[in-house]
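A.,

Following up on our hallway conversation. Structure tokens first:
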């Protein structure tokens, strides 16, 4: 473990020696950060740590003043830089298991909230997780009973057409019959070579590989609800408290770029070859993770990009609507929710949304090893029928 920690410290030192100037961002914070950096080269580790934590706290306060989109890039860069320094100082303080986990949290805060030194922070987190793996003790993880279906969703089977299914369609067939014509299709047989198909069923694998990593989760049945919120939690806590057993409130790791944060997990998946039929040559798809217990719901919405939803663990029930029905789905007027429907197709209120009665839907159950192509602009509601781990690939 000590060898790995020493390697991390050496790795960080070169990054911390880079030139910087944050005076145009915040002169007082620039001064305080320089002081903590200078103190880090002395025996004043505790003083330096106190100073850099003060910087992080002040920057954090600025993040929560006004809109996130309006946060200056320089402020986010300072947060990354200060997180890098905090990592070094924590490792100089101690290198036991508790301190390693605390350090990994500091790194992830820099990755999730900052916008710089991503490669340095990612490598440091990966190395420290490897050190933790040396002390990992496997504990039996038993999933809660998730075999029972959701009656509300299954009642919907009486309405709408089933999404067509193809087994390993050629690129030419997919391009001609589905991509160009913007029609949904469920594809089978294209995930058999994914290591994730077997590895991710073992929750101990995820905990051992990345249990100490900090991830954002959504709390509440729908992001459109007033009581919906978000928080940061370790992957191990999330799995043990919200996935293995059903918590009081639905909690979902949703639409998170987990594979950028934890590259080791990206080694377990493969980008569908169909994504490379993109209009924009050379552009890699946006890859997001969706992990949660039975019953998590993404309300009816549309995305501006094409989407391949790949089901790795468990199953999901998906309802889709052609963009031509947009008006009858009653999108929210709010600019942040204009791509989300007010009407719930599982329990529609026809008094409030009378035109919804004219809408025709498509639907399918997406099982392990299957992918669903959702064309851009198509409305879709997604519900987990069991503990579920999915990967989405967004592309133009």
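Then the amino acids I'd put at each of the 396 positions:
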């Amino acid at each position: 473990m000590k060898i790995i920690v020493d390697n991390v410290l050496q790795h960080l030192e070169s990054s911390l020696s880079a030139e910087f100037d944050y005076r145009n961002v915040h002169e007082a914070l620039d001064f305080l950060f320089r002081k903590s950096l200078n103190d880090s080269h002395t025996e004043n580790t505790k003083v330096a740590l106190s100073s850099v934590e003060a910087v992080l706290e002040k920057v954090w306060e600025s993040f929560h003043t006004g809109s996130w989109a309006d946060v200056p890039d320089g402020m986010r860069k300072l947060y990354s830089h200060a997180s890098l320094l905090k990592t070094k100082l924590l490792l100089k303080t101690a290198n036991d298991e508790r301190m390693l986990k605390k350090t990994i949290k500091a790194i992830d805060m820099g990755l999730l909230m900052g916008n710089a030194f991503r490669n340095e922070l990612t490598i440091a987190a990966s190395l420290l997780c490897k050190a933790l793996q040396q002390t990992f003790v496997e504990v039996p993880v038993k999933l809660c009973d998730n075999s029972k279906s959701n009656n509300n969703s299954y009642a919907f089977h009486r309405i709408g057409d089933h999404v067509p299914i193809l087994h390993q369609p050629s690129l030419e067939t997919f391009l001609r019959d589905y991509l160009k014509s913007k029609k949904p299709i469920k594809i089978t047989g294209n995930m058999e070579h994914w290591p994730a198909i077997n590895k991710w069923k073992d929750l101990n694998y995820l905990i051992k590989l990345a249990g100490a990593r900090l991830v954002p989760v959504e709390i509440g049945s729908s992001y459109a609800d007033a009581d919906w919120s978000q928080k940061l939690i370790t992957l191990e806590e999330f799995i043990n408290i919200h996935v293995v057993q059903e918590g009081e409130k639905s909690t979902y790791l949703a639409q998170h770029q987990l594979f950028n944060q934890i590259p080791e997990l990206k080694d377990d998946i493969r980008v569908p070859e169909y994504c490379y039929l993109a209009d924009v040559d050379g552009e890699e798809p946006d890859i997001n993770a969706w992990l949660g217990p039975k019953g998590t719901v993404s309300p009816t919405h549309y995305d501006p990009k094409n989407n391949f939803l790949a089901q790795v663990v468990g199953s999901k029930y998906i309802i889709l609507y052609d963009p031509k029905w947009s008006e009858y789905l009653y999108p929210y007027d709010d600019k942040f929710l204009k791509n989300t429907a007010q009407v719930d197709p599982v329990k529609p209120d026809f008094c409030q949304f009378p035109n919804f009665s004219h809408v025709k839907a498509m639907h399918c159950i997406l099982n392990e090893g299957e992918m669903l192509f959702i064309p851009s602009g198509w409305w879709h509601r997604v519900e987990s029928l069991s503990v579920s781990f999915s990967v989405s690939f967004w592309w133009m």
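The two ends are 44 Å apart (CA to CA). Curious whether your intuition agrees with the design.

B.
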